[in-house]
Amino acid sequence: MNVFRFRAYSLLSTINTCRLIRRNLPSNSNTSTLRAIADRFGVKRRSRRFLRNYILANGLLFGGGSLYYFYYLTPKQRRQIKVTFEGLQRALRSFRIGFLIAVDYKYHFWTIPDTSPEYDSKLKECHTRAAERIAQGCIENGGLYVKMGQGMVSADHILPKEYTDGLRLLQDQALRRQRSEVSQLIDEEFGCEVSDLFSYLSPEPIAAASLAEVYEGRLKSTDERVAVKLQYIDLQDRFAGDMLTIRMILYAIGRIFPKFEFSWMIDSVKSNLERELDFKLEGENADQCYAQLSPHLKYIYVPKVFWKYTTKRVLVMEYIDGIKISDTQKLHEANLPLDEVDTKLVEAMAFQIFHSGFVHADPHPGNVYIRKDPNTTTKSNVQIVLLDHGLYVTIGPKDREALCQLWKAIILKDEAKMKQYSLALGVQAKDYLTFAAVLSMRPIHRPIHDMAILPDIWDRMSPDEQRAARAQGKMRLPSEKELLAMNPQQKLTIRKDFAAIFNDIEDSILRTLYDMPRPLLMILSVSFRQKIAKEEMDRIRLKAREKMDEVNHVFKQLPDKLILVLRNLNQIRSTIRDHGNLIDRHTIMARSAILGARKYETPQRLIKDRIYARLELFMFDLILFKDRMERWFKFKFFKVLVIFGYISKETEELIEQFQ
């Protein structure tokens, strides 16, 4: 009733005000316009006055009512209105950037064919400009956009180098919020003041990310030193709108550039972000991680969660003094060897993937700290501290066994088993080699004798065996006598038939060069000279681009949990590469996979099974040692080729593309 009375009083007051305004209103252009409109539609003088009064009254009533409504809203309701308008602004900014990028690509490649020498240089320039625009847009939009940009940086096994380099600055970017938002968030979550929970809370965050800020504090009840992780107060309000915008942008990119169609990833990304926004789930993940790793790996530590002070948007954990794993200078100064750090990190991640099945999906450098183990006095005292447990993936026993067996098959170069366990993990049969290469993050090279069969062996095969061999892509190799008897046209046909094998031989050279340390390639490239024909260069360029399509096709087939496992492996690979590749990551992962496979093969663990498992592990160690020695000899061989100038600078650049 009071509200009705107020509205009636406001309306009468507004009408009286309009009468006073009308009496004193000069005959300006606006009133003349109103009169002209009224004359046009045949409105009488009294009706004109009523129309003018009506418009002014409604305008004032709407404005005054809006101010009155906004004044009586709660802070949370005001924030939601603000988020809505800011969301429209972010969407318009994102579409503008997407439009500029699309025009840039279309304009520069309208008439340039894929095989043109200037294609690659133009493409790199466009990639660089696009990355700069995306990075700037992510910084201006903040929140989920920064998170998506950071995810693109970690996808350096899919995206062009120019994108990952240009977006790398986002790893140190985060929102900066007002101090009042901290008090407001604490009030919304706990219904009290900051001082009621903490005797001290740092005035500025000690760390900031795309989803939250971390403050140093002390609990008022126990005076314990803690890290207080506070989610940005409006993040959950803007989540749905921002995700819709990102989905539309990715869909548009896929329609314009089919090779960069990544909209299929958005549902997975949305699901993962929803989990990361739940800090109670993050606390549960932290406790489970430590419970599973600590009995087996004594050098792993996870900060304790203070559950009394933890909600969906606030997480309070034990404060850790440590060194970020990417800060190599401080690690050297603290006498923490990088090779030991890397070995323990790989062992921990391998244990999660192949044994426990509870995998940290985001172990980037900001989430891994290193310190000296306070409980150890031995020389090997490196302790790995795992932070940010918001995103985990659970791998069931069946998939875990398939991963172990697949890795074992990769080591043994057993293609039949590779195909079998790739199928078990949801990959199509024709893509098993690509998936094996993506999983191990090393090229899978098929031996030449597995593709071309000598004539005496082929002739002894039955017709059914020959048909099966052809179905697998194998061919009979002509004898020397048969080749000498061929005319030029027949020889040309044979060359075309065996083109795939010739290409594979050439690719194996590139793959071996890829295994060489990049600094050495860069140093020795001073003496490189061009030895590969132009048409072969064009073919390799096209093949490098085709590889990206193959990898993208494989990723579309994988369930979300395997994509997160690959994300884990890629983060670890990136960290070890930045440390200078001081350890053989592949061997450590392989040994862990073999032990995991053996556990599934003989779960009863009798004494004879343990002895057999040790013997089998010894044999695998020999195989891995042989693999390392082969790569060492190839390295020396190509060093000789470099000295004599048989490898060019352009080849080194192509190896980078082939990666």
TrEMBL record:
Under Pfam families, the record lists: ABC1
Instruction: Please report the stretch or stretches of sequence annotated as the ABC1 atypical kinase-like domain.
Output: 170-421
UniProt keyword list: Membrane, Transmembrane, Transmembrane helix
The portions of this protein that span the membrane are 54-72
So what family is this one in?
Belongs to the protein kinase superfamily. ADCK protein kinase family.
Its name, as the record gives it, is: ABC1 atypical kinase-like domain-containing protein
Species name: Rotaria magnacalcarata
Starting at the broadest rank, the lineage of the source organism is: Eukaryota, Metazoa, Spiralia, Gnathifera, Rotifera
